[in-house]
Amino acid sequence: MLLDRAVAELELARVGLEAGRRPAANPHLGRAQGIVGELRCCLDLRVGQLAANLDELYGYAYGRLVEAGLDGEPSHVHDVVSVLEPVRDAWSQACCGLQPSAG
């Protein structure tokens, strides 16, 4: 659900930046940054490579969002969406694919 919200905020930010309305996009960028930051903080890096990979991905995403806020470049937002959407979709698929066993 957090990744869904982050992607939704990023789409709103991208629309604002593309329209030249940077002040309107900034709150959306901030909310997306907050979500990515929380996701990163919740990782337990002791559990293995998956957590380490997600940490790197979230770090990249956070950095690109900072850049988007500084220079107003919509392509930075697109970059973040392009890395978060597959993660969101994978989590969604994993969660929906887990069915409680009958019996």
Compile the SSE list and pairings.
Blueprint: H1 2-18, H2 22-41, H3 49-71, H4 74-97
Helix pairs in contact: 1-2, 1-4, 2-3, 3-4
List keywords for this structure.
globular, 103 residues, mainly alpha
- Counting helices, strands and paired strands, the structural category is mainly alpha
The percent range for strand residues is under 5%
Number of strands: 0
Inertia-based shape: globular
**Helical residue percent?**
over 70%
What is the H-and-E element order? HHHH
Put simply, the count of helices is 4
Largest sheet: none
CA radius of gyration: 15 Å
Oligomeric status of the shown chains?
A: single chain
Summarize the structure.
By secondary structure, the chain is mainly alpha-helical. The protein has helices at 2-18, 22-41, 49-71, 74-97.
Describe the overall structure.
The protein is mostly helical and 103 residues long. It has 4 helices and no strands. The radius of gyration is 15 Å and the shape is globular. The two termini are 29 Å apart. The mean pLDDT is 92.
